[in-house]
# Entry
Amino acid sequence: MADWLADQLHQTMAALRDQRERIDAAKAELEARTASVTSADHMVTVTMNAQNAVVGLKFNTTKYRSMPPDQLARTLIDVLGQARQEMTDAAVEVFGPLMDQRVDLRAAMAGNTEVDAAFASIWDEAPTDVFGRGKD
# Structure
């Protein structure tokens, strides 16, 4: 294998390891987060984790005892939805930058970067032994 190709392979593998470490760190950061939302009337607080599981439900007042059941249900559905949305926003915040890099990584792996385009004619004229096969 040509030295420049081996160097390119090592650089690509290092970039992949770096990306994997970033993904693992992002997953750990998101796992550590929770979202807590309190209803507008301060009656109930819901806490949700990264898997959108309810990990806390606290009634801050006894108002729920005298509420019509449908009003209590609407209040709970509302705070659950808000907590879920906060966790979704957190996931976008944490993983968003990695998603942008994933597009760049896909382009690099497919040979569709600006650098590939700039050097296309050089690759076409490279000696056959550079790629270990004959020219097409």
